[in-house]
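Homework help board

Subject: predicted structure for assignment chain

Our instructor gave us this sequence and asked us to write out the predicted structure in token form, then describe one feature. I got the tokens but I'm not sure how to describe them. Can anyone check?
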Amino acid sequence: MVIPTGIGCAIGGYAGDGLPAARLLAAASGCLITHPNALNAAALYWSDPRIHYVEGWALNRFAAGDLALAPVASQRVGLLLDAGIEEELRLRHLQVAEACRASLGLSIGPVLSTDAPLEVSLSLGPSGASSGLIGRPDALIRAGESLRQAGATAIAVVARFPDDPSSEALASYRQGSGVDALAGAEAVISHLLSRQLGLPCAHAPALAPLSLDPRLDPLAAAEELGHTFLPCVLVGLSRAPNLIPLRPVPSPGLELFGEDLIHPSRIGAVVAPAGALGGEAVLACAERGIPLIAVEGNPSLLNVSAELLGLRTIAAASYAEAAGMVLALREGLQPEALRRPLPPLELLSADRPSDGGSAFPGPWPPRDGRPPHPPC
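My token output:
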């Protein structure tokens, strides 16, 4: 399940409002791979062993066949704090970590502050999608490598983001419209660290609390329940799967994982917004012939559609319908058999080659004949 971040998706464009769709797809598939953007809800979270929390860079590499995923019972989550965080705000984040240790039994630590402020800045692109820069990526990488050397197996990053409480964009966002201005910069941070370290990583922004807004939209409410966005990140990373490189050569001991390993050849379908199909994970899956379910009911700022890209998709009006399509694929049913009118059989002539047939390349699973365990 892919919901691109920072583009104002109607579902998944806020903190954790993609969770109901993720839970439904997890139930339909038996195994859902998705990214923190779809699951993080600040102080709220939902733990489900069928849902695997995979940062966006790693998700792209998994979709491309470069990584496999190894589920684990527990990660030791190192906490990386931006040196630019004020002392009171720093203590709030440390208290969240202590609370997760005491109340949830999570393995957290060590904790390390960067040797220089990360200097995060935010911006909006021409399309209105959010973006951002990190002024000191070297400080981020040094801290991450130190945490890995100290025994951390996953990294939670907290960077100080600029406050702009009077901005029109923030006011619109709190009232249920507009774009998450933080999301683009968050993706830059987590992508960089995951790629550099090869570990599960996720980010939580450090911000000053906002004043109470009586007009707050329900979609924005999760972000205003506490002092930090960190709880969901620590919970998500606590059981995030390990990243196992498959290229340029498979990792030594790969066979030891056996059937517990989630190999990219076991991907049964990818579900994404119908207007945001240009992302790396979606295109990698399409290139590999994996069924693509395009959800029309999740519009965004983008209009990168199947028609523009020349992709074949299975259309779904909503995530509820997408879950039905996933079930159909699992049962070996052609989704077109569930729609009317039913397309006629394709008739070939001797002088005209086939154009590929149906909207997806065959029954579940789309690769070898072995049934996936569980299908993803």
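Reply (TA_rk): Your tokens look well-formed. For the description, you could write something like this. The longest helix spans residues 87-104. That's the kind of observation they're looking for.
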